[in-house]
Design goal:
By secondary structure, this protein is of the alpha/beta class. It contains 15 helices and nine strands.
Length: 324
Amino acid sequence: MDIQEWEVKKLRLADLIPWPRNPRKIGREAYERLKERIIARGCKFKCPFCLLSGLKGYREIPTEQVVEKIRQIPRGSMAAIFAPERTSHSGWNEIKAAIRDQSIRDYGSDARLETLEKVDSDSVIMGLEGVSYRLRKSIRKNFTDDFIIEKMKDFCTSGKRLRFGAKISIYYIADLPGEINEDYKEFLDFIRRIESENWSRNLCLVPVLNPLSPKPFTQLRDAVIHPFRNYPAIWENILRGGDNNRRWGVRIKEYKVWGCFERTVDTIVHRGGSEGYQIIGKLNDKLLRQVPADWERQVLVSKEILKVCDKIGLTQEKLLYEYD
C-alpha cells in the first residue's frame, strides 16, 4: 500500500473517531454539559516529528458556520472550541468575538508560540519541542530563549492574567537526534531566566517532556531512540531545581514522563509490524495497565521483552534503538 492509499484510509478512519474525552478534568456532571465545537481538522504545519499533517490535510469549517454554531450554545455554558491549532483559523478573531458575546467559558487552549497574543484565556498549551535552541532549530522551530520569554511575558502581563495569573503548559520532546547533556543545561538556564522575571510571580509553568516516538511517514521515522535513558529522573531533577537541592521561585507543575517500558512497547508497536503486534498481544494485560514504577524493574522487564523480539527477527537494528 503506497502513502496515498494509506492517507485516504486513515483520513476516512479519523473522521469516524470522536474527539478524546477526559471527564475527570472538570468533573463528570460538568463535563456532560460541556459543548464541543470542532472548527478545523488536520494541520497546516509539517513538523518533522508529527504525523498529523500527513494523516489529514488541513481543512477549516467556514467562519460563518462556526460563529452560527457558537451562537447556538446557551449563554454562559462551558465549551471546547477545538482544532489542532485553532489560533491559525482564518476567522479566529470573529470566532473569539462570538465566544465573548455568548459569555462562553472556553476550555480549548492549544496555540503556537507565534500566535500567543491571540489567546484570551488564562491558560495555554504550546509546543516548543526542543529543550535548547540548537534542538529547536533542528526541527524548524527557530525560537531563541529571548523570543520565547518575551512572548511569555506579553501573555502573563496582558488582560485579566495580570490580576488573576496565567498558566502556560509547554511540550518538549526528549531524545531528539543529536541531543547532548548541554541541551538540558541550557534548559536549566532558561528556567532560571523565567524565575528572575517579576512577571513570573503570577505564572504557573507546566513543562511536559515526551520522549520521541518516531512515526511512520515523518522525517524522524528512522531516528534511533534510546529507551534506557532515564528521562523521568532527568526531568524530575530539573523541575525540582537542579540536583534536587532547591525549589524554583516560579510555580512549576510536574507531569509523569514515559519510562523505558512505555518506550519499548511504543517502539515495537511502530516498528515491529505484524510480529510486533503478536508480541504486544501476548503481554499480560495487567502489565500494560500497571507499568512498574521502579526504574530497575522497568529495565528488567523491557530487556526481557526485547530478547523475545530478537528471537523472532525484531532485532536491535530493525527496531532502531540503542542501549545507553
